[in-house]
Structures are given as structure tokens and as C-alpha cells.
Amino acid sequence: MKAKIEFLGGLDVISSHVREHKVNLPFEEGDATIRDLIRYICENIITDPKDIPVFIEDDSVRPGILVLINDTDWELEGMEEYVLESGDVYTFTSTLHGG
């Protein structure tokens, strides 16, 4: 299943500063949720395991990271229960900035 995963707002630091990832997910359409995508990202995209806590907390995306599914807030799509579809675009944007 093809998808695009984007890391914005400085969150690209967890993936060697690559902002956009076009991936072929190892799931059948209709058989995986955002929970599975989060696990996939941790296992295959985050380059340094010590950066995983930057992205997840308590088995979900950390507070302070805006999650969009096809430009729609994931809260309107069912959050972790959203069923992945081929061609989806998943955008993760950090809203926390250092200073």
C-alpha cells in the first residue's frame, strides 16, 4: 500500500532531516490503522532509536505533534483507529519550538 509520510516543524530531525517519505507500507488496504503506521515509523523511518520518545508517548503520538490525514486533523478521522488507505498522506508537525 503506497503512502506519503511527512515530518514538518522540525520533526524531520528524527528521520535524518528527510521531510517527505514516499513508502510502500507492508499492509493490505483495510487491515491496518494509524497504530500500525506509528509502529512502522518507529521501526523503519526513525533513524536513531533514542529519538522514538520525541515522536511517541504512551503508545501514541506525543502531545504537541499535530497529525493530519490527507490534510484533515486526525481527531476528525478517529485518531489511532483510522484505517489506512492506499494513497493517503500522513503529516506530523511539531507545534513545540525551542528558543
UniProtKB/TrEMBL annotation:
The keyword Cytoplasm applies. It is found in: Cytoplasm. There is a cross-link at G99 (Glycyl lysine isopeptide (Gly-Lys) (interchain with K-? in acceptor proteins)). SUPFAM superfamilies: MoaD/ThiS. GO terms for biological process: protein urmylation; tRNA thio-modification; tRNA wobble uridine modification. Keywords: Cytoplasm, Isopeptide bond, tRNA processing, Ubl conjugation pathway. GO terms for cellular component: cytosol. C-terminal thiocarboxylation occurs in 2 steps, it is first acyl-adenylated (-COAMP) via the hesA/moeB/thiF part of UBA4, then thiocarboxylated (-COSH) via the rhodanese domain of UBA4. The modification 1-thioglycine is found at G99. Signal peptide: none annotated. Coiled coil: none annotated. Its main location: cytoplasm. Pathway: tRNA modification; 5-methoxycarbonylmethyl-2-thiouridine-tRNA biosynthesis. It holds the Pfam family Urm1. InterPro entries: Beta-grasp_dom_sf, Mopterin_synth/thiamin_S_b, Urm1. Belongs to the URM1 family. Acts as a sulfur carrier required for 2-thiolation of mcm(5)S(2)U at tRNA wobble positions of cytosolic tRNA(Lys), tRNA(Glu) and tRNA(Gln). Serves as sulfur donor in tRNA 2-thiolation reaction by being thiocarboxylated (-COSH) at its C-terminus by the MOCS3 homolog UBA4. The sulfur is then transferred to tRNA to form 2-thiolation of mcm(5)S(2)U. Prior mcm(5) tRNA modification by the elongator complex is required for 2-thiolation. Also acts as a ubiquitin-like protein (UBL) that is covalently conjugated via an isopeptide bond to lysine residues of target proteins such as AHP1. This is Ubiquitin-related modifier 1. It comes from [Candida] railenensis.
